[in-house]
Amino acid sequence: MPSSSATPLRRLRADLQRAGYYPDIVADVLDLALAEEDVVSHLVHVETMFDRTEVRRHVTVLVLTPTRLVVAHVDDLNGDDADAPPAAAATTESVPIRHLRTVSLTHGVTEPLTYRRGDDVSEVTLALSWGAVQRIELEPATCGDPACEADHGFTGSSLPDDLVVRVSADAEGREAVRAAIAFAAALSAATARA
Question: Whole-structure pTM over 0.70, yes or no?
Answer without folding.
Answer: yes
